[in-house]
């Protein structure tokens, strides 16, 4: 490694990448067990793991872009870590809750709430950082 800055966002991108691999493995395992190679075949367990995987891929990219954006804008490492932890824990809980039950569950609700909170805070900070640095 060289003397470049030690960025924080790649840590959370890497951890979420591992989570995606775990969720993808769950999909593959369910597909083989259900003998459904495309779609969900109407199999409830397969539907849940497919949605858990897809939900991560729907939320993580924008959340990581926002995290990187506020990091580049110079917000403190503590703020970046706080938001990264919110995102990671939120996605872990949501994925766990959704793979266990299609109905309401505490992990799923808490996970979604943490993810939304992270998105709200990171969006607000990104906008604030841009506005305060802009010269109109």
Give the structure's gist in a few sentences:
The protein is mostly helical and 136 residues long. It has four helices and no strands. The radius of gyration is 17 Å and the shape is elongated.
Topology (SSEs and partners):
Layout: H1 9-34, H2 44-72, H3 77-100, H4 106-133
Structural write-up:
With 136 residues, the protein is an all-alpha fold. The protein has one domain (9-127): Four Helix Bundle (Hemerythrin (Met), subunit A) (Up-down Bundle). Helices cover 79% and strands 0% of the residues. The chain has 4 helices and no strands. Helix 3 (77-100) runs antiparallel to helix 4. The longest helix has 29 residues, at 44-72. It is elongated, with a radius of gyration of 17 Å.
Structurally, the number of domains stands at 1
User: What is the radius of gyration computed over CA atoms, rounded to a whole number of angstroms?
Assistant: 17 Å
Number of helices: 4
CA-based shape = elongated
From the N-terminal CA to the C-terminal CA, the straight-line distance is 39 Å
Return the CATH class: Mainly Alpha
- DSSP strand tally: 0
Q: Profile the largest sheet.
A: none
Q: Which structural class fits the helix and strand makeup?
A: mainly alpha
CATH topology: Four Helix Bundle (Hemerythrin (Met), subunit A)
What is the N-to-C order of secondary-structure elements (H for helix, E for strand)? HHHH
Low-confidence stretches: none
């Amino acid at each position: 490694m060289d003397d470049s800055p030690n960025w924080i966002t790649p840590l959370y991108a890497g951890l979420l990448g591992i989570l995606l691999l775990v969720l993808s493995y769950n999909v593959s395992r369910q597909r083989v067990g259900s003998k459904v190679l495309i779609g969900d075949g109407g199999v409830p367990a397969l539907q849940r793991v497919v949605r858990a995987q897809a939900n991560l891929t729907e939320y993580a990219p924008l959340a990581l872009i926002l995290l990187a954006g506020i990091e580049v804008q110079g917000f403190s490492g503590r703020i970046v870590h706080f938001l990264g932890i919110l995102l990671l824990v939120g996605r872990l809980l949501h994925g766990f809750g959704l793979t266990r039950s299609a109905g309401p569950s505490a992990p799923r609700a808490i996970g979604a709430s943490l993810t939304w909170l992270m998105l709200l805070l990171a969006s607000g900070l990104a906008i604030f950082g841009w506005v305060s640095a802009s010269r109109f």
